[in-house]
C-alpha cells in the first residue's frame, strides 16, 4: 500500500492535494472570507464624532437614582469595588429558574480568569401572571445575580429588554470593560472568550464582536410577529449586525449606544436594532466564526475548547460538556484541528438534515393542500 502510494505520479499528487484544499475551502472558506474580506469600512462624519464625544463625557452618577426606578431588581451594588473585565448578561425568561440554576452550576461558575474578574448576571423582565414575583425575589435574595426591568418579558419586548440592559450596564456597571449579551439557551466558553479579548490588547475600545449577519432584510409581512413597516425602517437591508444569541461590546460602545437608542424604533428586532445603533455611532461589527449564532455545534472536546458559543444546549448536554472541557487537559494543535473539522462537518450535516426535514414538511403541506 505504502509502495503504491509513493509511486503516484505528479498529476495524481496534484489531484489529492487539490481535493484536500477543496475540502478545507468548502469547510472553512465561508468563515475565512467573512472574517477577512467582508469587513466594511468605518465611516466618520460630524454626527459620529459628536456622538463619540458625548458618550465619552457622559456622567451617569446623577442619573443613577432616577434610572434605578426603572428596575424592580437593580443590584445597584454588585459592580462596586474592583474593575470587571467581562460582564455577562444572560437574557433569561422569568419562569426559567431551573435553566438559571443549570447555568450557575456550569459555564457561569467562573469569577476570574487568570486574574481578570468576571461577573455573571441574569437579565429578566416582569413575569406574566403564570410566574410569581415572589419566586424571583427569593432567587434574587439567594444569589444576588438577577436584574429585573419594569416591562413585561414577552417575545415582543426583546428589543426593549436589550435597551434596558445596556442602559443598566452603562449606569450601574461602568467599570466593566466588556459586556457579553447572551441568551439562556447558549453554552459559552468564558475562558476562550477572555483569551480572545485579551489578545485584542492594542485596541480595547470600539469593540462590537460576534457572528456577523450580512444583508439581512426587514420582515415586511404584516401577518408576522416581527413585522417592520416601511415607515419604521425604510431601507431595503439592515446594516451588518452581530447575531443576537451572543455578542460582545466594549463599555465605550455601550455608552455610544445609550446615546443613540432613542433614534431607532423599538419595533425592529433586537439584534438588528443594535446593528443600526452601531452604525449611527460609526462602528463596524467584527466577525468571529467562533461564535455559533443560532446553530448548535456538535460536541467534540477540543472543538468546544476552541469555540466561544453553541446554541440550543439541552439540560442533559450542558453539565456533561462543561465537565469535559474543564478537565484541565489541553488540546494539541492537531487535536484542535481534528476537533474543528469534525464538529464543523457534523454541524453542516445537521443543518442539511434539518433543511431536508423542513423541505419534506413543506412538500407534505403542499400536497395536503
Ligand atoms: C430625576 O427625576 C426628577 C423627577 O422626575 C427630575 O426632576 C430630575 O431632574 C431628574 N434628575 C435627573 C438627573 O435627570
Ligand atoms: C463552582 O465551582 C467551584 C469549584 O471551582 C465549586 O466548589 C462550586 O461548588 C461550584 N458552584 C456551583 C454552584 O456549582
Ligand atoms: C412590553 O412591556 C410593556 C410594559 O410592561 C407592556 O405594556 C407591553 O404590553 C409589552 N409589549 C409586548 C409586545 O409584550
Ligand atoms: C427554559 O430555557 C430552555 C433553554 O432555552 C428552553 O428550552 C425552555 O423552553 C425554557 N423554559 C421556559 C419555561 O421558558
Automatic annotation (TrEMBL):
One of its GO terms (biological process) is protein O-linked glycosylation. The chain crosses the membrane at residues 12-30. Pfam families: Galactosyl_T. It is a single-pass type II membrane protein. Keywords: Glycosyltransferase, Golgi apparatus, Membrane, Signal-anchor, Transferase, Transmembrane, Transmembrane helix. Its EC number is 2.4.1.-. It is an enzyme of class 2 (transferase). One of its GO terms (molecular function) is hexosyltransferase activity. Its main location: Golgi. The keyword Coiled coil does not apply. InterPro entries: Glyco_trans_31. It is found in: Golgi apparatus membrane. Gene3D superfamilies: 3.90.550.50. GO terms for cellular component: Golgi membrane. Belongs to the glycosyltransferase 31 family. PANTHER family: BETA-1,3-GALACTOSYLTRANSFERASE 9 (PTHR11214:SF29), BETA-1,3-N-ACETYLGLUCOSAMINYLTRANSFERASE (PTHR11214). This is Hexosyltransferase. It comes from Monodelphis domestica. The gene is B3GALT9.
Amino acid at each position: 500500500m505504502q509502495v503504491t502510494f509513493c509511486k503516484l505520479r505528479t498529476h495524481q499528487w496534484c489531484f489529492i492535494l487539490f481535493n484536500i484544499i477543496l475540502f478545507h475551502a468548502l469547510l472553512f472558506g465561508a468563515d475565512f472570507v467573512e472574517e477577512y474580506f467582508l469587513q466594511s469600512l468605518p465611516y466618520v462624519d460630524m454626527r459620529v464624532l459628536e456622538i463619540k464625544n458625548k458618550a465619552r463625557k457622559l456622567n451617569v452618577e446623577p442619573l443613577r437614582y432616577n434610572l434605578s426606578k426603572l428596575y424592580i431588581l437593580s443590584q445597584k451594588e454588585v459592580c462596586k469595588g474592583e474593575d470587571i473585565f467581562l460582564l455577562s448578561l444572560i437574557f433569561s425568561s422569568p419562569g426559567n429558574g431551573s435553566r438559571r440554576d443549570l447555568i450557575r452550576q456550569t459555564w457561569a461558575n467562573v469569577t476570574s480568569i487568570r486574574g481578570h474578574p468576571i461577573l455573571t448576571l441574569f437579565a429578566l423582565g416582569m413575569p406574566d401572571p403564570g410566574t410569581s414575583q415572589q419566586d424571583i425575589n427569593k432567587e434574587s435574595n439567594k444569589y444576588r445575580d438577577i436584574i429585573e426591568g419594569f416591562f413585561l418579558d414577552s417575545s415582543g419586548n426583546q428589543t426593549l429588554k436589550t435597551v434596558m440592559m445596556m442602559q443598566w450596564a452603562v449606569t450601574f456597571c461602568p467599570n466593566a470593560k466588556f459586556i457579553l449579551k447572551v441568551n439562556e439557551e447558549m453554552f459559552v466558553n468564558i475562558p476562550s472568550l477572555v483569551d480572545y479579548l485579551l489578545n485584542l490588547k492594542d485596541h480595547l475600545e470600539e469593540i462590537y464582536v460576534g457572528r456577523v449577519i450580512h444583508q439581512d432584510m426587514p420582515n415586511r409581512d404584516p401577518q408576522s410577529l416581527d413585522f417592520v413597516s416601511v415607515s419604521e425602517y425604510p431601507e431595503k437591508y439592515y446594516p451588518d449586525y452581530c447575531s443576537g444569541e451572543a455578542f460582545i461590546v466594549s463599555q465605550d460602545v455601550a455608552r455610544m449606544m445609550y446615546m443613540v437608542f432613542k433614534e431607532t424604533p423599538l419595533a425592529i428586532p433586537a439584534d438588528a436594532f443594535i446593528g443600526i445603533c452601531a452604525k449611527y455611532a460609526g462602528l463596524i461589527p467584527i466577525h468571529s466564526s467562533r461564535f455559533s449564532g443560532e446553530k448548535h455545534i456538535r460536541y467534540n472536546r477540543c472543538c468546544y475548547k476552541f469555540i466561544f458559543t453553541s446554541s440550543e444546549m439541552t439540560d442533559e448536554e450542558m453539565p456533561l460538556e462543561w465537565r469535559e472541557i474543564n478537565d484541565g487537559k489541553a488540546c494539541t494543535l492537531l487535536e484542535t484541528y481534528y476537533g474543528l473539522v469534525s464538529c464543523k462537518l457534523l454541524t453542516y450535516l445537521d443543518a442539511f438534515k434539518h433543511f431536508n426535514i423542513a423541505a419534506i414538511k413543506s412538500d407534505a403541506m403542499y400536497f395536503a393542500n
